[in-house]
Structures are given as structure tokens and as C-alpha cells.
Amino acid sequence: MKVAVISDSHDNIWKLNQAMPHLKAADAVIHCGDLVAPFVVSNIAEGVGDTPVHIVWGNNQGDTYRIGIMVEKLPHVTLHGFMADLELEGIAIAVCHYPHVARGLAHSGKYGMVCFGHTHTPHEEWVDDCLLLNPGEVMGLRGRSTIVLVNLPERSVEWIEL
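and the corresponding C-alpha cells:
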């Protein structure tokens, strides 16, 4: 199973459109927060078809009311709040926005993969048997726009620069 992990899109639909072929090819999409505008949700949802999309809030949530209303109409999109607790291909996965929370979750021993955002900086690290992963940013604020494809259950990582 291939999982696309993205974060910190911050309304950059141009970079999100560049990521879309990779998101479409995935079996699931995880967004680690900072969508900002509701149109980012609709772009992702329409772009990936029926592929499941899992979203957590970040600190730049934008119009939470309209995002919530939109997600209610999209059966393949789940808005988890500030943390997602998933199981894909037998791997327990936690998703949050903040690195300090993610590190604690990785050290808990409960998860095989923990994904986070917020720093806009790509990060890949093994904490015991847990893959701790920040896909970087779609936005491009720091000059690089990156996403990650993770193959499950082996948790091999492929970095994509947009």
C-alpha cells in the first residue's frame, strides 16, 4: 500500500496541483495540517477521486466552519481534529501537526509511524521501531516543496520534490 503524506499546503494550489499525480497514485492520503482555505480540501478530494484522505488541524486552520461543512459532503475525506489514530496495512499510525507531540507519540511504543508538520522542514527518523516523519511543506515558504510516499507495511520512504 502506498500512502502519500503531505503538510502545510497553506493555500498554494499551484504546488498542490504539482503534487496531485503522486496523490492520485497513492492508496491513501494523509495531510498533517495547515490547509488554511476550504478550497484546498475540495482540490485534494476532487483530485484523488475516491482515495481515502485523512486530515488533522494545524495552527493555521483557516475557515474551520466551512472546511467542516465541506468534509461532511465528502465520504472519502475524514477530518480527525488535532490528532488521527489510524491503522493501515497493520501499521498503527498517528498523525498530528506539532513536532513535540509527534516525538512523544513516537516514543510511546504504540505506533509504527507518526507523521507531523508545522516546521516546514522535511524530517525522517527512526525512534526504536517507529518511523517519525515530517513531509516538509507543499507551500514552498522555505524554498523547497516536498511530499512523501510511504510504502506499507515495510515503511520505506520516497521523497518527492515539487
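(Above: one complete record from the training split.) The chain is about 25% helix and 30% strand.
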